[in-house]
Design brief:
single chain, 334 residues, alpha+beta, Gyrase A, domain 2, 17 strands
């Protein structure tokens, strides 16, 4: 059974401010003078171009163009901070470590060193500004995935702009021992805790795929539709680039399957793995699903055969009528 969405938590995140615990995230620091050039040859986005205070979303691929992980890269000025799905952290560190030879690069697992807490919603900026004593204009001026150094309760803090939850907001990084107190301070400032099921519904409304749910080690980024955010088409070579370019240039971007949004007619939410059919033909599988409070019906993400990806295409999901939808399902107000 899929957990129910909390109306109170959903309303807080959409209209005021909601707190999301990033317990599913891991954190890696990459230091040394060669950190940017080292990662530049491995990740899909233009890491070398990042100036202090900036960041990007990227993927780490195999030579066959399949995903090892998706991750966020933040240039802090003296180190780069990587955040990624906790389940792939050990594999990523091991692979990166094997590739360090004479470069001045050092890897550190700081997953248990820091707490990472997101604050999302229209009031997120003003609340974060009051908590870490940073002018709200400075926070509002952060570019996508931008970051700044701050302090909270006498200890160092890092603030990064985030949008992967489906609402504009910020991730706050503090010492792990201070995590509970920070969460309490956010609550005292008026932010409401957002449970995982509700956070997932907001993510789905935004059409944001999640690693090990909507993408995995068999996925090519073009199948998941993350290329506009995760891939630089002007940077130099990186692992897996040949496959990406071949699909784009020779295959005109067409892949055998594609992740699409699916609107269902009713409120019955299909389980992950549910069949997607066109008449009597099996054309795909659901990967994520939830009830959408904004749309008042069930929505899902799923991979379908490339002949069925056009918005408006009628399909059957787990026996129920459905329609392919453009993403995002719901956009937050700018």
């Amino acid at each position: 059974m899929i957990p129910a969405v909390s109306v109170d938590a959903y309303t807080a995140a959409r209209q005021r401010a909601g707190v999301i615990d990033r317990a599913d995230r891991a954190r890696i620091v990459v230091s040394g003078a060669d950190r940017a050039s080292f990662l530049q040859g491995l990740l899909t986005n233009d890491v070398v171009a990042l100036q202090p205070g900036h960041g990007c979303y990227a993927a780490y691929l195999t030579a066959q163009g399949r995903m090892i992980a998706d991750l966020y890269v933040y240039e802090l000025g003296d180190v780069m901070l990587l955040t990624l799905h906790r389940d792939v952290k050990d594999a990523v560190i091991a692979k990166l470590d094997q590739l360090v030879f004479s470069e001045d690069v050092h890897l550190g697992d700081v997953t248990e060193t820091f707490a990472q807490i997101a604050l999302v919603g229209p009031l997120a900026g003003s609340i974060v500004a009051s908590i870490v004593a940073v002018p709200v204009e400075q926070l509002d001026g952060l570019a996508d995935h931008g970051n700044l150094r701050a302090a909270w309760n006498g200890s160092p803090a890092i603030v990064t702009r985030t949008g992967d939850t489906g609402e504009p907001g910020f991730d706050l990084f503090v010492e792990r021992t201070a995590g509970a107190a920070l969460k309490q301070a956010l609550n005292s400032a008026g932010a409401i805790d957002v449970d995982p099921a509700t956070a997932d519904a907001i993510r789905l409304e935004a059409g944001v795929p999640l690693f090990h749910r909507d993408m995995d080690e068999e996925t090519i980024p073009l199948e998941a539709g993350i290329e506009s955010r995760a891939i630089s088409f002007t940077k130099g070579c990186y692992v897996g680039q040949e496959v990406v370019i071949r699909v784009l240039h020779r295959g005109h971007g067409r892949v055998a399957r594609k992740l699409v949004g699916l609107r269902l007619n009713g409120d019955r939410v299909p389980l992950a793995g549910a069949a997607i059919r066109s008449a009597d033909r099996d054309v795909g599988r659901v990967t994520s699903s939830a009830y959408s409070p904004a749309l008042k019906h069930a929505i899902a993400l799923g991979y379908v055969h490339r002949d069925f990806v056009a918005p408006g295409t009628s399909l059957i999901v787990d026996g129920e009528p459905a329609e392919v939808s453009a993403l995002p399902f719901v956009s937050y107000a700018e």
